[in-house]
Amino acid sequence: MFPVYDLIVVGGGHAGCEAAVAAANMGSKVLLATMNMNTIAQMSCNPAMGGVAKGQIVREVDALGGYSGIVTDHTMIQFRMLNRSKGPAMWSPRAQSDRMLFLMKWRSMLEAHPNIDFWQEMVTGIVVKDGIAKGVRTGMGIEIPARSVVLTNGTFLNGLIHIGEKRFGGGRAGEKAATGITAQLNSLGFESGRMKTGTPPRVDGRSLDWDKMEVQDGDHIVGKFSYTDTPKLENQRPCHITYTNPEVHELLKTGFDRSPMFTGRIQGIGPRYCPSIEDKIDRFAQRDRHQLFVEPEGWNTCEIYVNGFSSSLPEDVQFKALRKVPGFENCKMFRPGYAIEYDYFPPTQLKMSLETRLVKNLFFAGQINGTTGYEEAASQGLMAGINAHLAINEEEPFVLKRSEAYIGVLIDDLINKGTKEPYRMFTSRAEYRILLRQDNADIRLTPLAQKLGMQNLDERMARFQEKIEGAEKIKRFFQKVSVGPEEINSYLTSKGSKEIKQKGKLHQILLRPHISLSDLGWVMPRIGEFLSQFDKEIMETAEINMKYEGYIKKEQEMVDKMNRLEAVRLHETIDYHEMTSLSSEAREKLTAIKPRTIGQASRISGVSPADISVLLVFMGR
To answer: What are the beta bridge partners of residue 204?
Structure first.
């Protein structure tokens, strides 16, 4: 009935979709197994992609040949570049998406791929022979053979939904939980744990008083995620902002005695940076209001996502409290918010390729590794799909360094530090933020994707080359062309910048604070005529490269220094217990994680600089 697939991906969420596409685009024959094909790429929580650090990840996924950025560009209803008031290392694209169009576009792109097949049924176990993954077993007892398996189960492994004192099995609202896999992996020696996440109520937009809320429009100049030729968003839907108040808080407190979080019925640890509304008013009792983002679910629906009001309180308490929020006095609720507990597997049990240490050719990606967020999941799925393809073809794994991508930071953190709470990416987690900008993800990563043999990169490579050459051409022009006081002084004065007394190079003018490339093109027609041949993204990259050249150079020197440690390889057969000069904690951690390099060893929690010195002496350095 089934051929022997190169890869079976279990789960059709963001991680599963990217894993399937990545392996398929490298030439593997892939089966995507999911319990419900109608919810492939479902946006289970917030109908948005991107955000602080997350937007950088989506651009990196796109630069490596993934589809998340393409799908987002085709289905967005609003775009905003966050943190524009800060430096370019902090700029983060975010898009509000049409939830229904998003999953439809993903499914159509998957179905259009000749290397991807589908099977709709619950997978209850992995076929393991001699310590190697050989396929999957389904609820009907069918064994489907494969050379590798990627598990991307999301919140479905023994999922348990909580609403007040009610609790019932489920992977998300209206869908049953997945059983069998956790028990089997535990029997194979894997350690598992429980985590928690939650979602807010959905309400009827027709019942809201929009005049009582602040309007949050999208950017006037609309950006996008993909480096390919995706459509430009012409019209946008506004989001809105409102706030809770002391009356809302007091009503919510009436349900605390029935809250699964406060009564101890929820054992899993929730996300620190996205707490429920009851957690917020408990932890920040001194605050008399909390911001709520009122976000539409799509173009042609009245369903509204109440961002910031995640809750597992009883549904009657949620409803009464919502009706005290300005603009929500007559709101109708489609469904209440809820919390969900699910199984995860501490990611220290994985190699840097996301392959498990205990079972060869078995890979984990997404929330099964303890992360939270579509973007974090998508990036892991991409990397797991790539490495599954490489593994079955006996090629070296593809591992991104912390200096190469936020994806590299994410995976490095998971493997070397582990996580006991849902892991979310922030710009603060990356040491080399000025190198890992959202505008240069293609420059950093597309050539690596080409070396991997990723298909369908011709357009990306052409655009990448055009961008490199264009940015360099602008830089040479600005270093060469001079400008006189009569041309520029009135503009400099308007910006609060000191006037020039004699001719100076454009490059030096641009380095001043508050002076922008586009402004110079607008003020001086001859400069504008030259810049008109380049698109916005090329000009943005050229400007950043010139303005921040010193910072970029300094950060690159730090990277080069760290890379010298990354070049010192550690063999997996090293017996760290014999190195008595190491601390006992270091011996334990190094034995468990088996780092590939000295650099990786230096980032393991519990391994001190003194321990690294011992390893360097051992390696003859």
So the answer is: 303
The residues, ordered by sequence, that sit 6+ positions from 234 with a Cβ below 8 Å of its Cβ are: none
Q: Is residue 133 within a helix (H) or strand (E), and if so which, with residue range? A: strand 132-138
Distance CA 621, CA 614 (A): 10
Instruction: Judge whether 72 and 79 are in contact, CB under 8 Å.
Output: no
pLDDT for the residue numbered 472 = 96
Q: What is the CATH number of domain 461-548?
A: 1.10.10.1800
Is CATH 1.10.150.570 the right assignment for the domain spanning 567-618? yes
Is residue 411 classed exposed, middle or buried when 0-12, 13-18 and 19+ CB atoms within 10 A define those classes?
Answer: buried
Q: How far apart are CA 525 and CA 533, in angstroms?
A: 13
**Looking up tokens 């010193």, which residue turns up?**
550
What pLDDT is attached to residue 621? 59
pLDDT in tens, 382-411: 999 999 999 999 999 999 999 999 999 999
Task: For domain 202-338, give its CATH number from 3.30.420.100, 1.20.120.140, 2.40.30.260, 2.60.40.1880.
Answer: 2.40.30.260
Collapsed DSSP state (helix, strand, coil) of residue 207: helix
**Residue 19 to residue 359: CA distance in whole angstroms:** 18
Q: How far apart, in whole angstroms, are the C-alpha atoms of residue 279 and residue 97?
A: 27
In angstroms, the CA 151 to CA 173 distance is: 21
Checking if the pLDDT of 100 tops 80, the result is: yes
pLDDT tens, position by position, 141-183: 999 999 999 999 999 999 999 999 999 999 998 899 999 999 9
For residue range 179-233, list pLDDT tens digits in order. Answer: 999 999 999 999 999 999 999 999 999 999 999 999 999 999 899 999 999 999 9
**What is the band of 248 on the pLDDT scale with cuts at 50, 70, 90?**
very high
Distance between CA atoms of 186 and 167, rounded to whole angstroms?
25
Secondary structure string (H, E, C) spanning 63-117: HCCCCHHHHHHHHEEEEEEECCCCCHHHCEEEEEECHHHHHHHHHHHHHCCCCEE
CA distance 113 to 91: 33
| Adjacent-strand bridge partners of 127 | 135
Q: Please say if the pLDDT value at position 484 is more than 80.
A: yes
Interatomic CA distance for residues 512 and 150, integer angstroms: 50
Query: What is the rounded average pLDDT for all residues in the chain?
Result: 94
- Strand duo 7-10 + 30-34: pairing: parallel
Give residue limits of the domains in the chain. Answer: 202-338, 461-548, 567-618
- From residue 45, give the alpha-carbon distance in Å to each of 97, 338, 612: 12, 11, 42
Distance CA 503, CA 529 (A): 20
Say which residue the tokens 């596409």 belong to.
21
Higher pLDDT, 119 or 569: 119
Q: Average pLDDT in the 424-447 region?
A: 93
